[in-house]
Amino acid sequence: MFSSDVIQRLADCQKVAVLTGAGVSAESGISTFRGVGGQWDKLDPMKLATPEAFAKDPKFVWEWYEARRRQVAEAKPNIGHEVLAGMENFFSQFTLITQNVDRLHHQAGSHHPIELHGSLWMVRCMAGCGEWEDRHELVDLPPKCPHCGALLRPGVVWFGEGLPPEAWEEAEKAAVECEAFLVIGTSALVYPAAALPEQALKRGKLVLEINPEETPLSSKVGLSVRAKAGEALFSLRDELEKVASVDNKQKGGAQ
Ligand code: BJW
Ligand code: ZN
Q1: Among 41, 142, 163, 171, which lies 20 to 30 A Cα-Cα from 91?
Q2: How many CB atoms sit inside 10 A of residue 206's CB?
Q3: Backbone phi, psi, residue 66, to 5°
């Protein structure tokens, strides 16, 4: 799946960044957006994931989010999430950037995943009274702000909205400073997130993609592995551990 040259180059890196997308959670039973069986197969994103759609019909939009929140509440992290959480111990500087809003990276043990598109569990007051919190239970749809009575909205980033500035800054810094950049389970169609691997490529970094389907990035990266995230990451961990143990033995022998 991965050539020994790629494994050795990756194992030699100190600074590694990863961008994940919906494909990483597909093996936890969470629908992707694009492609067969994805959310946008049956539903129009412009009627659900835009500020205009919410202004027009907040109940309709909230019902879709609440159904997704229930789906995510039942889901568990998969081996792909777990391997990525373990990579924090393998590389001295490891940055996990996600477009996912399901918090499964947190559940798997990742300490500080950068959430570019927010979280399904956060709610925010439309009147800007400062209400911005983690809320798992919602009584009525659409929910109202407990402080000022205005509408609450999902704490995610819709089309046409800017990304959280701190998260974006941190993600860009990681893409620019890393030695290797992994792009896993994303169609790489949604900007500005899709610009991160492009920035790494422009700077000559080692960029690896894991995706069962071809994406606009596939032909540009150093290696594009056509596999599901879970199996590819399982194999990647195995290969990296083998190289690390050989390197450790060699270092031990040299002393
Ligand atoms: C597997 C697998 C397995 C399956 N293992 N893999 C430049 C050009 C054109 C347009 C734009 C542009 N710049 C900006 C835009 C507009 C827009 C955009 O990018 N549109 C494109 C679609 C054309 N971007 C925006 O509007 C962004 N904001 C912005 O640019 O603001 C600018 C601005 C400036 C100044 C002021 C104000 C604004 C915001 C984007 C927000 C995206 N939001 C969503 C919804 C989030 C909330 C929610 O969840 O409801 O985020 S859309 C949706 O797409 C969601 C995802 O995070 C995002 C990315 O999707 P992802 O993760 O890649 O999933 P899929 O489904 O696309 O792909 C899954 C992949 O997994 C596939 O490739 C499968 O093959 C693979 N797979 N099984 C591994 N087992
Ligand atoms: Zn309020």
Answers
A1: 163
A2: 20
A3: -65, -40
Contacts of residue 165, defined as CB under 8 A and 6 or more positions apart, other chains included, come to: none
Q: Return the pLDDT at 254.
A: 57
- Is 119 in contact with 128 (CB distance < 8 Å)? no
Q: Which two tokens stand for residue 31?
A: 């629908």
CA 103 to ligand 2 centroid distance, Å: 24
Which ligand approaches the C-alpha of residue 161 most closely?
1
* Residues bordering ligand 2, an ion, CB closer than 5 Å: 125, 127, 129, 131, 145, 147-148, 150
The residue ranges of DSSP E strands in the chain, in sequence order, are 15-20, 93-98, 114-115, 118-125, 132-134, 152-156, 180-184, 206-210, 223-225
Burial class of residue 135 (count of CB atoms within 10 Å of its CB; 0-12, 13-18, 19+): middle
18, 30, 190, 210: which to mutate for ligand 1, most atoms within 8 A of CB? 190
Half-sphere exposure of 201 (CA within 13 A, CB side): 17
Q: For residue 15, give the 3-state DSSP assignment.
A: strand
Whether 63 has a pLDDT exceeding 70, the answer reads yes
Report the predicted TM-score, pTM, of the whole model to 2 decimal places: 0.96
